[in-house]
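tool_call: predict_structure(chain=1)
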Amino acid sequence: MSPSPIRSLNPSPSGWKDETVALAGAPGAAVRVYGCESRTPETPLVLHFHAGAFVGGSLEGGSAVGSLLAEAGATVASLDYPLAPTHPFPQAAEAGYAALQWLERQRRRLAHAGAPIFIAGEEAGGNLAAAVAMIARDRGGPELAGQILLSPMLDVCIATESQRQAKAGHFGCPWADGWRAYLPRAQDATHPYAAPGAALRLARLPRTLLITAQDDPLRDETQAYAKRLRAAGVAVELTVLPAPTGWPRSYLQSDGTPWVAALRERVQPFLFQPAQQPQRTTLGSHP
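tool_result:
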């Protein structure tokens, strides 16, 4: 897929504007751009994917994280990617890669000519961000300065201890239902772009910020991915916030929730720090 020219709408009073990226062989995908008016010569660009277990979510639902990334100093393009089951794997991942190519071409307009490009996502959006980072590596770019993965959905087996503690069984579990809708063909469950947590080749991926919480059902797969990335030589920063946070549903809220300040404290340095930093794990604290 390759995006064609975009259509811009008027900026909203809340500091974002909507644009449309046309995808080859598919309807146009909406992109909500945050932070355009506050750019500086240091402004990074972030392509963001919202949560929703592959079958739900929206630009509105992703606005809490999108706005937070913009408040951290980035220009953020949040993609309204195609949802399963109407659009199963690999359509959302391919749409994400097309949006990344578009973002690279729009770099000067949205930020500045040398702006570093990051990719970010929460829950199913974290899966797509990790997948698109792999696609960019395998297809020769665009080059990414980093990936920010918040409680990413990475393990299709739904068998971790943190999932069991959350009583997220196979029946009535939003993640199990989402996986089934996104991967209707059994063979897709082993594809690295579908389930990055099981990918065998993780070398040469961009430096990574992984954030989870003690009460996060996706905690174990987040931590396991951090360990495997480190083993592959990828610079990783992992933060596990203390409970209670209400994750992952707390990603839908930005007012009065305990994760907001803690998340901002970790995202902002990651966006602006030099490319190579020591790998570390931190147990965060609520503000």
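agent: Residues 1-14 have pLDDT under 50 and may be disordered. Proceeding to next step.
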